[in-house]
Design a protein that fits this description.
By secondary structure, the protein is an all-alpha fold. The protein has helices at residues 2-39, 42-59, 64-76. The termini are far apart.
């Protein structure tokens, strides 16, 4: 009888660690996916910054010289 209790505890622990293992694998996959998708967004951020700069120029907040200077700065990053 003592042996049966030990095997039940080990089986339950084995099951818990199995579930934890797969949860960690899933978290790692999601993390990698987010990292890869975030690293591809650099071009989109640059485009967004250029769009904001164009909007500021269109509203008259900055003049042409400042627009050109900031546009060159953005393209060098």
């Amino acid at each position: 009888m003592h042996g049966d209790g030990w095997q039940w505890g080990f089986g339950f622990g084995h099951w818990v660690f199995g579930v934890l293992f797969w949860v960690l694998v899933l978290v790692a996959i999601v993390g990698l996916f987010r990292f890869w998708s975030a690293s591809g967004n650099g071009r989109q951020r640059e485009k967004a910054a250029l769009d904001i700069l164009k909007e500021r120029y269109a509203r008259g907040e900055i003049d042409k010289d400042e627009f050109e200077h900031k546009r060159r700065d953005l393209s060098n990053e």
